[in-house]
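Take a specimen:
=====
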Amino acid sequence: MKILFVSNLNPHFDNTNTYRLKAIQELGHEPIFFEDRDFVLPGRIRQKVAFLQDWDLRRLNCRMIEVAERTKPDLCLAVGGYRITADTLKRLKRMGVKTVLRTMDIPRPEFRHVVETAPLYDHIFCAGTEAMEVLAQAGIEGAVWLPFACDPDFHRPVDLTEEDRRRYGRDLIFVGAYYPNRWEILRHLVGAYDVGIWGPGWEQVADKKNGHCLHAAPLHHSQWVRMFNAAKIVLIIHYQDGIIPCFQASPKVFEALACRSFVLVDSQRDVFKLFSSGKELVGFDDIQDLKAKIDHYLDRDGERRQIAAAGYLEVIGRHTYRHRLQAILDHIGGAA
């Protein structure tokens, strides 16, 4: 099967689309990748001048149709869906191409475009149940929940060097961008535990007291995989702003479990529809509960390893990007 894969790749690090492309190939299909951020004009200009944004978006969609006409795909898999216009989806349908929308992000204001074009897709799959609720409120039914996943070739147990252990061997590690809700939790741990925090944006809260714990920089997956392997506890805190609903399980949940790490995660709804707290990972409710569980599991190496091993087997057995792509193809086949 030829699959026109419409989304974006990051030239600086592997994003989740890297794993999706690989899964398409591993399952014996032919990916035709179309970069949906290949604009001519810089974003700062397009954001200021509406007609330039419209012009560049139309140009991008015309190129997408040209690619489809030349390659004749069987399926168009759009991850995100923010930059595919209604006219393009109608053209693809007239060409006989099945169209699939795969939402990933939480429903920020720009998600309105996805809601407007969603009825034109043949099938919709959502990374989080919050997106399904937003679509249902707009009268769009039939979306399927399909969470993030891991790729065992990228996310895996690794042999650590002495330098890795010296640099990353913490009792507790957090990997992710700065958000106020994350710092509201993490600030209670700095100074109380041997904790390391890595990711973009943390310089804005660094000071003389916590600077040794905060490392503000984007990370290649090979770095944070080593961090996950070196730490006793991997802490995962999902983005929340109190306004935009976010229930989805972060990719880091699956990726950390695939490293056979012990995962301690906030009470995110979708996570506990997939994994059992106390069996494959452990959830916490608030700061007091978090500290109590950190203290408990730091003193119990065997219990940590047992839960980490169970989480590893579960995620490798059911939650890889090959599993996710196969679920899409099975659903489409069954619905055809």
Q: What stands out?
A: The chain has a mean pLDDT of 94.
